[in-house]
Structure prediction request, 202 residues.
Amino acid sequence: MLVAALVLGLAACTSTGDSDAGEAPSSSATPPAPPLPTTVKVGVVTGRVGAQEKERAVSNVTRAVDGWFDAAYVAGDYPRAAFDDAFPRFTKGAAKEAVQDEALMSNADIGSRIDRVTPKARRLTIDLLGVRGVAQAATARVRLVFVTEGEVARRVTVSGRLRLVRQNRVWRVFGYDVTKGQRPVGGRESGSASPSGSGAAS
Prediction:
């Protein structure tokens, strides 16, 4: 199977200095509002994946996707123009692609003109691919909705698919197909960013 071959090849790539322990959240001068949890569902499982392995894979894939949601859109101080750390669990190749698409893959297009981001929906459906009983790849179907305040007050919807692979003990995004729709708060939907291609693991 071509997909399985790609998975095994990518999984053989090594990564250093990473573990599946998430990065510590940034501190803030004021107590943050209670975080909106991500609603997670398991979609299609291809191949054999045991119950404990499935639970572990879903947890780690969710952590990787949440890391992007927070670093690219929801968390951090605003206004700001820099989104250098927006792709913490992307492969080098995918992160390079995402930086080129930063207006789509982060709030780089509006970050300097907003004061606050309030998440309204965080949804994730995870499809898994098992190889020899172990989950080795995943497709995360994502939907993030948030409202911005400040000079730019918009309701933003980010949706699409992230493709992830297990590299040693760390799950990383190696490709994406994402759209980003925006509309003024209380207004009609404005133009959305075009879907982008995928980045390659390196």
Observations:
- The first strand starts at residue 39 and ends at 46.
- The chain is about 25% helix and 35% strand.
- Confidence is low (pLDDT under 50) at residues 1-31, 189-202.
